Amino acid sequence: MAQSGQGYKGSDDYIASKPLMEIVNVTIALGKPLVIKGEPGTGKTLLAHSISRALNKKLFIWNVKSTTKARDGLYVYDTIQRLNDARFKDKDISDIRQYIKLGKLGQAFMADEKVVLLIDEIDKADVEFPNDLLNELDEMSFHIPELDEEVTAKHRPVVIITSNSEKELPDAFLRRCIFHYIEFPDEEMMERIVKVHYPDIEMKLVREAIKRFYWIRGVDGLRKKPSTSELLDWIKALALGGVNVEKISAEIPFLGTLLKNELDTGRFVRLSSAQGGGIFKRR
Amino acid sequence: MFTDFFYLLRQKGVPVTVTEWVSFMEALHGGYFQSNLNHLYYIGRAFLVKSEAYYDMFDLAFQEYFGGIKTEPLELERVMDWLENPLNRLPKLSPEEMAEFQKKLEEFRKEHDMDELMRQFRERLKEQKERHDGGGKWIGTGGVSPFGAYGYHPGGIRVGGESWMQSAAKVAGERRFRNYRNDLILDVRQTKMALKKLRELKREGAQEELDIPETVDKTAKEGGEIELVFNRSRENTVRLILLMDTGGSMLPYTELCERLFSAASQMEHFKEFRYYFFHNCIYQDVYEDIGNYKRVPTEKLFSQFHKGYKVVLVGDARMAYSELFDINGCIDYFYTNDRPAIEWLIRIKEHFPHSVWLNPTHSNFWGHYTVDTVGKIFPMFELTIDGLKDAIKTLTSKAKPAMVA
Fold first, then answer.
1. CB B23 to CB A79 under 8 A?
2. Which of A16, B128, B229, B320 is close enough to A10 for a disulfide, judged by CB 3.0 to 4.6 Å?
3. Structural domain of residue A244, as residue ranges?
4. pLDDT tier at A71 (50, 70, 90 boundaries)?
5. What is the mean pLDDT of chain B?
6. Do B255 and A165 touch (CB under 8 A)?
7. Residues 6+ apart with CB under 8 A from B284
């Protein structure tokens, strides 16, 4: 590795798989945007937070919504304010600069040091959204016609883009990015993840809970498979409820924290009683 | 460097472009790669493959290129069979043993080169005739030969099996992403994808915009008193009618259709969403409920909905010849029809030029006379991610008139 020694290696509260770490390091070295996809709860958003903490760089978060436009991230020219100010004599409106407000992308470009920019849930926006950012992310610069000025990144920020695959991203956009699909963690990895979150909870309980968790995930035809965050909630509930380990394998307490859909719960209870399983409490 | 790998990827169906290849090459020459096949696999994938749907194809290509084995399915499948379920599982290693192991691994890497290993592997694959467990030369499980599963030979090539030491270069062989391929029938995880695809139907501006000319106009009229005028944002104008077959032969696909249905009905941004059911084929009535009790005259579809509505029919289109072509051909005993179903289908296509047929069965099974006929009236697609994509493309493009007059 060209920059070994100071590369990203995960942080205290975030476990990154080895391939992911390597990809993040290459991304940082090359200054290309990294697109992260994966099931909910696989830690897509947290990755950016973790990079920012591990490398001690400032984090800019641009939360994308269905109404977000690409331009919002660059800058907003507050014409209404200017028009309003024009009515009164007490303000000088000739300087447009004061009505130009940089968006998150603009701020990240203007930062005096290398920063981490998270573009969260890019697929929430309009289908055209990513295409509107092509040049900006490629060249890491954009033009403000009102000022006739070019904003160029002083230091190419580390750009992390997350997507929930609600909409497919355009090919032209993806071509310029590095892509990684975070797989759902396996049991061993999950154990480490749980340990990071709850270092104090008894290992035996955690192991048993994880075993049951993967078993539930394996049940066919669930509408919504429980994800990492549900597992964490469940383990917390188990620990707080003082449930003993044997009980977890015999029945599944607090099933409601894992399965959030009535149909799933019904299906699950039916299935497990058909298999001669224990009694499940439906809470 | 590896240029033929680029062509191999494309040949396997991974849509790699030159841009991506060039940046991959830059990264290679920039020295960001460790001389480690694992590294090359993950980083290469991140550069060259931009959707998990192609991960499986990438795996296949990678395996073929770097594995040095021509993936003749039969041969490989057989190897996988041998290597499944090793006779004896190996105990966990202590940290000291692990360190020792790592050391051996490094040594091994130094003295053997990967190409040579691959070549040997291929040769042995050819030589080997039966399942092999233990021992030192053949490909098998639990042995010390560099080839096989669950083995302890440092730096060896793993063929299938789960990863114990994460050192085997052939992660690709696992093909863990097989399920993410696009051409599989929609499964639970992909329900959302269906939703997304239907979403492409719409084009709308989401924001309320300041109408500048109008604002200037109004403000001038008011004598400088600012009057802001906003434009209503454009709305999605897609109106969709879903017609679903509830016939007996559709039973195996109930869940699949259910998913499509719930996905479509959850899409709040359609201007209008209507759904009706039919049994095997459409006659003078369609039904509002799955049980086929609440009748709605098919005629009403034509009077109530204008031709701008997009129609998606879902069914296997497989029925008796008479059900499609004959008067009174309907399968229901108490139901008579004075016009054959085919006439109704053609009317639907003529009235709603934007209509497609989604078929949950695989296109290999479409060679049936009623399926063929229906397919000539409506553009027919498989009820898969790819099929849905194509169907939506057809729906949004300019309509073609029905082929059958």
1. no
2. A16
3. 187-273
4. confident
5. 68
6. no
7. B297, B298, B299, B337, B338, B339, B344
